[in-house]
Amino acid sequence: MSAAVYGVLETSLRERRELGVKSLVVYLTGGLPGWMDMVRAAADAGADAIEIGIPFSDPVMDGPVIQEASDRALAAGATPPGILADVATLDAGVPLAIMTYYNLVYRFGLERFARTASEAGISGVILPDLPLEESGEWCVAADAAGIETVMLAAPTAPAERLPRVCSRARGFVYGVGLLGITGERDSLASSALDIARRLKAVTDVPVLVGVGVSTPAQAVEACAVADGVIVGSAVVRRAIEVGTAESVGSLVAEFRAALDAKC
Amino acid sequence: MGELQSATVSRGTPAAPVMGNPVNGRFGDFGGQFVPETLVPACQELEVAFTEAWADPAFRAELDHLLREYAGRPSPLTECARLSGELGCRVWLKREDLNHTGSHKINNVLGQALLARRMGKTRLVAETGAGQHGVASATAAALLGMECVVYMGEVDMARQELNVFRMRLLGAEVRPASSGSRTLKDAVNEAMRDWVATVESSHYCLGSVMGPHPYPWMVREFHRVIGEECAEQFRTNVGGSPDYVVACVGGGSNAIGIFSGFAEASTRLIGVEPAGGAAVGRGVPGIVHGMRSYLMQDEFGQVEEAHSISAGLDYPGVGPEHAHLSDIGRAEYHPVSDAEVIEAFKLLSRTEGIIPALESAHAIAWVSRERKRLAGSTVVVNLSGRGDKDVAQMMDILGPELQGGTPSSGQGGGS
């Protein structure tokens, strides 16, 4: 297969893997005060791609930190078209993905959302409440617009399910590192390495682990098997507690340095 | 494209019976399984387990035994002579308020708890609005020796203190849902978050005909007993079928239960929603809590907060089968105001000696308001629960009026 069949996000992550570099994907909630500067700072500090969250009123996969960020962004007036319009002006220099809940996309209109996101420079979309069986209509719209739909794979999946999830995954496969919602944990769950191992055994798509990857040391641990990690709550906590692009950039730099030194 | 798309998808198979089983997890365009990937295997296992259990005579016999010997079924169908006289139509009440724990909720909970035990789960997770489903869940957990955690919005914990105490007395842990509107919607969010983390040992004991497939179907089957009993009682005591069957709708479980006994009859099926939580009346299709259904939401798809005097109906969505029944015209859905509900609460208490739950008072309120239209008709109201839990709240609203002052000097309706 030639590299041309992959989208921007997947091509980029595959190149990192071929270079022997672990991928670092950073999540930030769109619409927080100063969020665009934070995205630029994260990219400058070495993130390989950025997930931009469009806040939803009822984020059932998210823990307290991202719930709080979502509430603040909504209170500040964040809307899906507003965030996409901002993204269109953002030159971060790395692939960008949207992470949000399906009702916002459904309400926007599937084709219109995919097209608008693509025109804004978005490469991928992650919808944590849209499992494989329900993803058909969205994937048709996403594929047509050149949007890479990242699929999630969970520790609860029986063996026969993982290849089916991976075959529909574009960009990367999002290995859910633990049984639970997003948020920081004291240690990396053993399920993080398990899901990475199971996914690596069945797919050539880049395998990244997220949910419960909280520190540079945990990121290094996960990358013993995974091709990379997604770091969300730890970064978002900086974004809401300190609230400066510099503080976000310095945390991302710590993750980058650890992955480059020890993987 | 979302709404346009749902309008162009074929509306089920033409031959599908009204209130039949869902097809591909859907009732017409509504339903589905929009859950985090972590929960997909659990939903699929639940569907298999329920399908097997529901076809197993031993399971059915055990549930029937509990419904009869523990919950007190069958519940009576009571004719209301004085209320009928006042309204000008013949009214019967299906007395789900007389079930153990005081509402219809016990039907579903006993079924799900037995199923959870059969699946090897040792812990029940539940959400609750008014506390009736939470109390029923705590009761079933105590009966079967299971652990039980109930999520309840902080606002609801304050207005339903009695039920919070009952749940704790029954051995359940009540955890406050402190995000968002701090009511039923947020309790569902917290229960789903819990389930995502504990799915291997826990069963999510969902309290209404909502959520991801198979819940809307399974919960309806557990409440089918209401409609089947009622149809039989009406046929025996009165003859034929009633002209109207009326039930309140939040998520819609008591309504679906009683409607299911009259799906093929000529009876008109009426769902009554709170004006501040009228998902069928004011909603547009959306996706939340695992299902595609009518949903109160803003132009961007953010879920709106419902506002109702009754905690049990304070929900911005509705079960997908109700959305479907509305779409195909088999059932109609109407809103009533909080003020009308307060009047109905008083009316039934005064005329029949039955204090209804505020939820059930919605159904009475519609009958009372539509008395001209209903003149001479036969009307069955599902009295889904008793009002003891609401008495403290109603004392604040009606207290001045009922403490010996003249009725005209009261402040009824204020809150």
Major beta-sheet overview of chain B: 6 strands, mixed
Number of DSSP E strands of chain B: 14
Question: What is the rounded Rg of chain B?
Answer: 20 Å
Order of helices and strands of chain A: HEHEHHEHHEHEHEHEHEHH
Uncertain segments of chain B of ≥5 residues (pLDDT<50)? 1-13, 407-415
How is this structure best summarized?
The complex is a heterodimer of chains A (263) and B (415). Chain A is built from twelve helices and eight strands. Chain A is an alpha/beta fold.
Give the secondary structure arrangement, pairings included.
The complex is a heterodimer of chains A (263) and B (415).
Chain A: H1 8-18, E1 23-29, H2 35-44, E2 49-53, H3 64-75, H4 80-88, E3 96-99, H5 102-108, H6 110-119, E4 124-126, H7 136-145, E5 148-153, H8 161-167, E6 173-176, H9 190-200, E7 207-210, H10 216-222, E8 228-231, H11 233-241, H12 245-262
Helix pairs in contact in A: 2-12, 3-11, 6-7, 10-12, 11-12
Chain B: H1 2-8, E1 26-27, E2 30-34, H2 40-54, H3 57-69, E3 77-79, H4 81-87, E4 90-95, H5 105-118, E5 123-128, H6 132-144, E6 147-153, H7 154-159, H8 161-169, E7 173-177, H9 184-198, E8 202-204, H10 215-237, E9 244-248, H11 253-259, E10 268-274, H12 279-282, E11 284-288, E12 290-295, H13 320-327, E13 331-336, H14 338-352, H15 358-369, H16 371-374, E14 378-383, H17 391-402
Parallel strand pairs in B: 4-14, 5-6, 5-8, 6-7, 9-10, 9-14, 10-13
Antiparallel strand pairs in B: 1-2, 2-12, 3-4, 11-12
Helix pairs in contact in B: 3-5, 4-14, 5-6, 5-10, 6-8, 10-11, 14-15
Can you walk through the features of this model?
The complex is a heterodimer of chains A (263) and B (415). With 263 residues, chain A is α/β, with parallel strands linked by helices. Chain A has helices spanning 8-18, 35-44, 64-75, 80-88, 102-108, 110-119, 136-145, 161-167, 190-200, 216-222, 233-241, 245-262, and strands at residues 23-29, 49-53, 96-99, 124-126, 148-153, 173-176, 207-210, 228-231. Chain A is built from twelve helices and eight strands. Chain A has an eight-stranded parallel barrel with strand order 1-2-3-4-5-6-7-8, surrounded by eight helices. In chain A, helix 3 packs across helix 11 (233-241) and helix 6 (110-119) packs parallel to helix 7. Chain A is globular. Chain B is of the alpha/beta class. Chain B has two domains: 26-67 and 105-215, Rossmann fold (3-Layer(aba) Sandwich), CATH 3.40.50.1100; 72-103 and 224-400, Rossmann fold, CATH 3.40.50. Chain B has helices at residues 2-8, 40-54, 57-69, 81-87, 105-118, 132-144, 154-159, 161-169, 184-198, 215-237, 253-259, 279-282, 320-327, 338-352, 358-369, 371-374, 391-402, and strands at 26-27, 30-34, 77-79, 90-95, 123-128, 147-153, 173-177, 202-204, 244-248, 268-274, 284-288, 290-295, 331-336, 378-383. In chain B, helix 6 links the parallel strand 5 (123-128) and strand 6. The radius of gyration of chain B is 20 Å and the shape is globular. Chain B starts with a helix and ends in a 13-residue tail after the last helix. Residues 1-13 and 407-415 of chain B have low confidence and may be disordered. The chains are: A alpha/beta (263), B alpha/beta (415). At the A-B interface, helix 3, helix 5, helix 6 and strand 5 of A face helix 1, strand 2, helix 2, helix 9 and strand 11 of B.
